[in-house]
Structures
1.
Amino acid sequence: MKRLQYLFLLLAAILFGACEKDNFDGPTAGLSGRLIDADTKELLQQDIVRGSTIEIVEHGYDPVRPQYLIVKNDGTYENSMLFENMYTVRPVRGNFVTPEPIDIRISGKTVQDFNVTPYLRIQDLNISKQGNLVVATFRLQQNVIGNVQKIGIYVDKDPRVGEPMRLGQKEQTLNAAADPNTVYRLEYNPDEFKAQMPLGKSYYFRVGALMSLTEAKPNYAPTVKLDI
Amino acid sequence: MLFSCQGILDIKPTDKIPAEVLFGDPEGVKIYMANLYYQLPIEDFAYFRAGFNQNGGDPNNGGFSAAMLTEEAMHTEFGDFFGDGDFQWWDQGYKLIRDVNLLIDAIPALDILEEEKSALTGESNFIKAFAYFALAKRYGGVPLIKATQKYEGSAEPLKVPRSTEKETWDYVLELCDVAATNLGTAKGRRANKYTALALKSRAALHAASLAKFGSRATVSGDAVTQKLVGLEASAAAGYYAACIQASQAIITDGAYSLFRPNPATPAEAAENYRLLFQNPNDAPDEVILIKGYNLPGANLGHNYDIWYQPAQVANGWPHPGRMNPTLEMVDLYESYAAPGQSAPVVTTVDGNVTDYGGYDPSKNYLRFDTPNEIFKDKDARLWGTAILPGTTWKGTNIVIQAGYVKPDGQAVIRIKDQITVGANTYYTYGAPSTTMYSGFDTYGGNNTRTGFSFKKFMNQNSPIVPGWNQSTTDWAEFRYAEVLLNFAEAVVESGTGDATAAAKALNDIRRRAGHTVNIPLTADNVQRERRVELAFENKRFWDLIRRREYHTVFNNRVMHTLLPLQDLRALPATKYIFVRVQVPNSNPRTFELKAYYRSIPGIGANGLVQNPQY
C-alpha cells in the first residue's frame, strides 16, 4: 500500500511538474502611432470595423503569417503585446495611397507614425437639420486617379459610426471622378430609420466617400452629433 | 552475428487488405468505388459549416445551414455569418484525390473487360473533377496532384506549389471531358456521361462568372500577383462556351427532361415540385445524379426533418423549426398576375413594400380572410418550398401568427397574451399552448421568426422520428432544370449561342411551375428563375460568390419578416393583416472581400501561398 502511495506521488510529480524551459517570457514590446494626412497634418479618420490596417511581418520566420493591427476611428493605432524583434511595417488596405513598407525594430514602446495621402478629402462640410431632413453639403478633393464609387452620410447611436457600422444611411452612387467645383448634397430622412433610431434623440452623423480602387476604404469627415 | 531471423518480422497485418488484393478483384474495386462516392463533396443534407457528411459523430450543429448565410433563410436563433474556418474542404479533398489516383493507377492491371476499364476510368476522372471543382471554388488555384505521389524518404519533393486559378479551372474541365468520353449513358446511382457533362456545365459557368465579374471585387497580395486567385476577364468567353457546349450536349441528346412538365393548375405544379424533392427517385427523367440515404443511423441517415419541420409536427423532438425562409425569399416569387417580375408581398392600401417601421394603428392595412390569402397568386414553387401560415402539413393546420390587434386598435405582437372578446378567447400566437403553433414564440427556438416554415425536401409521409440521423430522403445533386438554367445563363451573359433555345429552356422551367406566359431571356430573368427554382439546394451561396455579388448584397444587410396578425377590430369576421418588419433579434451582416476565398490551412507546413487577407 505504502509503495502504491509513493508511486502515485511520483506520478503526480511527473504529471504536474513542468520544465523551466517551457516558460517563455510574454511579449514585452508594443507599437503605436498615427496615420497622418501628409498635407493637412491632421489625423486621418478611419473605421473601427473593416477599416484600414497596419500589417506587421515579424522577421526570422518563413513562411510567416502577417499580423494586422486595427486602426481606431481617429486614426491612431496601438498593439502593446508584441514580441521584441525586427518587423516590416506598412499600413495596408486603407483609404490612402499605400506607403512603402519600413523595417523597424520594435522594442519597448515603439512609436511609428505614417504620413499618407488620403484618396479623398471631404471639405467645406456642413451638416444641418432642415425641416424633417438632415442635409449634408460638402466638396470632394480627389488625390488619386480613378472614380469615386459612392458618397454617403452614415448615422448611428454609437460615435464610432461609419460605412460598415451604421443603423441608417443615405448613399449616392457616383462612379465618376470627383468634381472639385461641385457641392455634393445628401438628404437623410430620419423617418425611414425610426424603427432602429427613434426620433427625439441625438445621433452621430458622419459623411464618407469611397474610391473605386482595390480594397479601398471610405474617407471620412469628422463625426457630428445632432438631435433629431 | 551467426544467426538471423528469416521473415519473422515481415508479418502481414491481418486487419488490412493489401492494395493488390483489393484492386485485383473487380468486387474489391466496387467497394473501393463506393467509398470514393461517399467522399464526394456533395453539398447535401449533411453539409454544414463544419463540412461534408455531418451525420456521424456529434451531428449537433444547431441546424445552421448554408442557406442561412444567403438571403434564403434565417435560423430561429443564430445570427452567425462567415467564419474563417467555415466550409473548409482541404485535407479531405486531397485524401479523396489520393484515393482516386491510386485507383487510376490500378485500372490498367485489372482483369476486366475493356469497356469496364473505360467506365472505371471515366468514373475516376469524374470523381477527381468533382474534387478539384470543390477545391477551386473554395481556394482558387490549388496544387494539382495529377498522379499518385510516392514517398521516398523525404517530404520535400511531395510539396507541390499552387497552380494558377486559370490552370486549376482548366484542369477541372479537362477531367470532365475525359470522364464524359469514357462513360456510358446507362442511368443509375453512378456517374454516366451526362453526369460528367452536368458537372462541366456547372464548373464552366462558375469559372466564366469569376472571369466576367472578378473586377467587382478586387483584392491584393501575393496570391493575386502570382495569379493563384483571380481570372482574366478575357477567359470568360471560353468558359461560357464550354458551359454552353456541355449543357447543349445533355439537352440535345434527350436522355433527360423535366419531371411532369405540363401541370394543369398551379396547385398541381406545387405538389409536383414538392414530390420531386421528397423522393427524387420518382423523377428519373429529371434527376441526373442522386446521393442516397438508405437507412437511419449514424453516417447513413441525415437530420433535415428533425431540424426543419415546423414545431407542431415535432413529434417529441425538442429542436424543430430551424429553417425560416425570409420575406426577401417570399417576395422574390412572381405572381401569376404579373409574370416576369418578382411580386413583393403588399400589406397596406398604399402598396408601400419598403416600410419596415412596424405596426402603426394609423396605417391602412389590407385585410385578408385567411393567413395565406395574401400569397394567393404567387408562383407554385413558393407553396412547394415554404410552409405558409395556415396551410396544412401532415394533416395539421400549421398556425403561424405573431399577435393580434385588439378591438381598440392596439396591437400585441410577439408577446404571449390572450384576450376574451364576447364568448371567444383569442391568443397572440393563434393557439393557447406551445404544441399548437409554429410561429414567433421564442420558446425553445422552435418557432419561425420570419413567418414561414420549410417544406422543400421534407418528408410528409411519415412522422418525425425524434433522434439523430433518422431521415432517409435522397438528395438530387444534378438535375436537368439546373442544366437548363446554366445554359440560359451562359447564353445571356456571353451574348453567344442559341438565344431561342435558351429562352425555351427558361420558359420550360416556368411552364412546369404553372406559368403560361413566356418571358424574354434577360440576365435578371435568368437569375430570378434560378433563385426560385434552385432555392435551398445550396446553389445561391455559390451564385453570390461566383458573380461577386456577396459583398454588395450583404453590406450591413438585415433580413425581413412578415408578421401575420389577427385583426380583432373586424370581429365577428375573422380577418388577418400583415406587417413587414426586420427579423426580430437580428443584426446587420456584412460580407468581407476575403471570404470570396477560404483560407488555406497549414501553410506553415505545406509552404503554400496564403489567400489574401488571411
2.
Amino acid sequence: MNAVGQPLSRAEGRLKVSGRASYTADRRFSGAAHAVIVHSPIANGRILSIDTSAAENACALAVFTHLNLPRMNPTPKPWSHLRPHGQGHLPLQDDSIYYAGQPVALVVAATRDQAAHAGTLIQVEYEESPPIVFGRDTAKAAIDPPQFLWPVASAVGDAERGIAAGAVRIEQTYSIADRHHNQMEPHATTAMWDADGSLTLYETTQHLYGTRELISIVLGIPAEKITVICEYLGGGFGGKAYVWPHTLLASLAAKLLNRPVHLQLTRAQMYAMVGHQAATIQTIALGADKSGKLTGIRHDSISPSSMFDNYIEYAALSTRSLWSASGGIATNHKIVHVHRNTPTAMRSPHEALGHWALEGAMDELAYAAGIDPVELRLRNDTEIDPHSGRPFSTRAMRRCLIEGAARFGWEKRSPEPRSMREGGYLIGQGMASAIYTHWRWPAKARVTLDRDGSALVEIGTHELGTGTYTVLRQVAADALGVAPERVTVRLGDTRLPPSHASIGSATMANAGASVMLAAKAARDKAIELALTGRDAPFAGTKADDIYVGDGMLRLAQRNVGVTYAELLTRNGLPHLIGDGNYDPVPEAEGPKAVFSFSAVYAEVRVDPELGLVRLRRFVGAYDAGRIINPKTARSQAIGGIIWGVGQALLEQSETDPALGRFLNRNYSGYLVPSNADIPDLDVHFVGDFDADASPLGAKGLGELTAVSVAPAIANAVYHATGKRVRDLPITVEKVM
Amino acid sequence: MSETRRAELGEQRVAVALTVNGRACRLAVEPRTTLLDALREDLALTGTKKACDRGECGACTVHVEGRRILSCMTLAAMQEGKQITTIEGLEHDGQLHAVQAAFIEQDGFQCGFCTPGQIMSAVAVIEEAKAGWPSAATADLQRPISLANLSKAEIRERMSGNLCRCSCYPNIVAAVAEAATRS
C-alpha cells in the first residue's frame, strides 16, 4: 500500500505530546549568558546620551550600545526581503532612531532575570521628532516603489474603457489593519563561536540557508563557517523566514564575550522588530455586463513600509489572474515610508489582503447585477491566466464552487439581506473564491538506505507545524518501497543538503520533490546491484522489470525477490546513498500558469443589538493538487481558515497616532481566535495530480486556506445585516 | 552588602522544596523567579513553554496539587511543599496518557509549541468535569456536569485559556472528547 495519500499521524507526534521536542529556547549550553534587548520608546529622533553605568554596576557582564558595538557590513542593495534580509537597517550602528522598539542597547548577564533587571537601569536621553504614521492622510503622499518580487504595476487590455463600458459598475475602497504574526514561540537565538572562528546558531528560523547567507554578509565571515540549526519551530507564518536584529546582536555579543549567548524576545518585543503584515488601503473598480461577465477590473493598493526599506504588500497581485475581464485588468501598488520597522510576509501575504477587496467587490457586483454570487463566479471562470496568457496547469475552480456549495447547502439560502433569522439573531451566508501563487524552487536531499533495510532522509528544510517530518517520510517510503516507519527524517541543519525557505506553501512540492528524487536514486543503485552486483539475483533482466515494495526488490515476471538488507550484505556495502537535486524551471518561465484554488462558504450569526458576529459554520473546497497526507493537510486547512477568522473579526495592531508605536503588544490587546470562537469546519479537497506543479503532483496548500475567509465572512455579514463592512477587522461598532 | 544590592545581583536566594513529577526537588532560586523559570532553568524541564510570560496564552500550564495553573503567574517560592506535575510527568512506564494519545490520533497540534500546555489543560478539564464543575458554557447550574455530558461547547469553553496560533482548535476539541470517553 502506498504511504502517500494515507492519513498518517505525525512522525514526531510522540515527542511533541510529551514535551521532548527540542525548540530553540529549550537547549541548554554550559556557560551560556543571557542577553536582553533594551528598545526605544520613541519612533523618530536620535539618541543624545546613553548611561549604562548603573546597569554595568548591577550585574551585567556587558552592555552594548551604538557606542561600543563593532560596525557590521551593510545589507546587500537593492534590498529584497527574499534573500532574506528582514530589514536593511542594522542594530546599534549609530544614534538614529527610525522606529519605536528599535534596539538601543543589549544587556548580557548570567541569568535572564539579571539581564532584564540591568536593562531597566539604562538611562537614554532622546531628541524626539514627530513620527510619520500610516493612515488615510499620509497615504496621499504614497510613492512608486522599486520592484522586489513581481512587477509593481500590470495592465492587460484597457481596464478603464472596459469598466466604463460595463452595464454595472462597482468602485469602492477596502482596507485592512496592520497585523502581527504572534507565533506562540517567541523568536530566540543561541549563538556560540568555536576557537577556529566558526559560528553555530540555534535559531528560530524557517530559512536556515538565508540566515547563514545574511550572517555571512553582515558579520563578514565565510558562509561555510556558519552552522544554523532549527529542528522544531514553534510556528513561523512567514515571520521567521528573515533575519532580524536580535540574531545579529546575539551573534556579535557571543563573539565579543567569548561564550554562548542566548536571547529570547519578549512577547512585546515581537511587535517591534520581527516584521508584521502591513495595513493596506485598496481601491477596486469592477465593470460587468448585464449577465455579470466582467468587462474590466482596476485594483490599486497602498501600504506602509519602514523609512529604510521598500517592502510592498502585493495586494492586487491575485486580481491579475483570478477572473477574466473582457476589456482588461490593471493593477498598481504604492508605498508610504513611515516610522516603523519593516513589514514582512505573513500568512498569507499579498493574496489574503487582495482578495479582501476583490471578492468583496464581486459580492457587491452580484447584488448590483441581481446574480447569485456562486453563479457570478462560474460565469467569470477562466481556463487561461488573464495576466500571462498561459493556460492554467490545473484549475478546479468549478469543482470548488459547485461541490463547496453542495456541502454547504447554498441552494437553501434566501438571497435577500436580512431575510434569514433565528430567534433574535440575524443569520447570514456568504462565499468567496481564491487563487494562490505556486512556487517552484530548487532543493537538494540525500537518502541513505541502510543495510538493515531502514532509510534516512536528510534535507535542510524545516518543520514549523506543517508536517514536514511526516510527509517526507511518506514520499521516501513509496519511492524506496519500504514501510514509512522504516524511514527517519533529519532536517533543520545547514550541514544537510540545502533546501529553500519554508515559505510560500512551497515545501511539499519542492523539498518533497528532491526527497523523491534522492530516494529514487538510492533505489536505482540497489536495482543496479541486483542486476550486475555480486551474486546478482536478477542478472540478465532489465531495470524496468524490477519493482520495489515491502522492503524488497522484486522481478515482475517471476515470483522472486531480494531484500535491500540481503542485497547490501551480499555486496559488502554498509549502505547506499542517493542524491536528489530538484532544479525546476521557475513557475513564471514555464508553459503553464500554476496556481492553487478554492471556494469557501461561511455562515454567521449576528446579534443585531450588540453587533456581535459569530461564525457558525464554514465549508472550504480546495484545489491544491494531489494531497500527500489528508490528515496533516486538513489540519493545515483548518488552521488557515481560523487564521482568516482572526483577520476577519479580531486582529488589528493599533498604532498610536502621536507616538507612532504599536500599542496592543500582547495577547490581551491583540486578539487572536480562541477555541470558543471556532465552530466545526468542513474541509474538502478536490484537486488532482498536477505534473506542472511538482513531480509529486502537489500544489501549495497552507496559505491558500487563509485566503478569502475574510470576504466570505464579510459577505455573510452583509447578507445577515444589509451592512457592507469594507474595513477589517469587522468589529462591533462597524456592524451596529 | 545591603539586602537590596544582593537581591539586585541575584545573590539573595530562597530555598524551595517542591515535588515535581513525583520527585522531591530542593531549589535555591531568586525570590523573583517564576515557577515557569524554575522548571525550565533550574530543573531543565523544558517541556513547559514560555510564550507570553504574562498569563495570557496558557502555554505554560502545569498542575499544582492536581489543579491547572499558569506557571508564569506564580513564583516558585509560593509553591513551597507543593506537588507539581508537568508534561514530562504524564507518561507512566513508557505509556502515554490517554490525552496525549488522543492528541496524536486527532492531530490536535501542528508546530507543537502550545501542545504541552493544551494537554495539561485537557487533563485537568476531564478531572474538573468528573468533579462536576460547571463552566460558562454550562446551561443549567442545577444539574452538575459530568464526563457523559461534556459537550463540544463545554470543551471549547474550558479549553479557551490555551491559545494555538496554528489554530488546531477543532482537532483539540476532538482529542479532548476522545480522551474523555476513554476516561
